[in-house]
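Quick illustration, no need to memorize.
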Amino acid sequence: MNHRPAIKLSHVSKVYANGTVALQNLNLAIPEGQFVSLVGPSGCGKSTVLRLIAGLGQMSSGNIDWGLTAQGQKLAFVFQDAALMPWANVRENVRLPLKLAKVPQKDAQHLVEKTLALVGLEKFQQSYPRELSGGMKMRVSIARALVTQPNILLMDEPFGALDEITRSKLNSDLLDLWHQHRWTVVFVTHNIYEAVYLSNRVLVMGTNPGRIVADIEIDAPYPRNESFRTSSMYIEYCQKVSQSLAIAMNHPHTTVF
């Protein structure tokens, strides 16, 4: 893994017009190719961090610096809601970002087919969202993000609404894709077990104000599979994250590190 930061947040604060302090003096460096998860209670600013990185909001203070040039920096965002166009089939939903970017149709079709194969949906190009399960809809949403060939992937609780079996399968599939392509991933979740399974690092956030209270390295080798999920190492890491989260919730002004 390259240890040069792909994203660096320095003294980032976000205060809303009503006076709510969503983030205060947040510092975070994410190396290129790292998979980082943010966990924490509702209202701790997890999604705000993602939105600021994506340029979907303005900081009140601080800086975000990039390890890549503006030309080399390609972000993609996957939201919790798949947000597919109901009137368009899978192929056209995935092609949408390329259409907006005015990519020639021949090139776009090649990228769409390649990306649908990547997420296991090559046989469903003509299907419509109403014909798909929740897990398949999320695969389409992920494909729509990946079709732009990003190097930074921002994911805001993408599997939060899915059942545990589907969620577990998509966790493993996402990890396989990341292991192949080594995007820089920032992943927001409420699920400790998901965070530990996926990540190189788990960042625990606290509220009032939103900030990072623990930075836990998950020093377990990849690829990971079901044997990791049942290992003592996995259980210990889950306990460590859970304890840090409990401290963050019960003692809001404590930093664990």
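The beta strands are 5-15, 21-31, 35-39, 61-66, 75-78, 152-156, 184-188, 201-206, 211-217.
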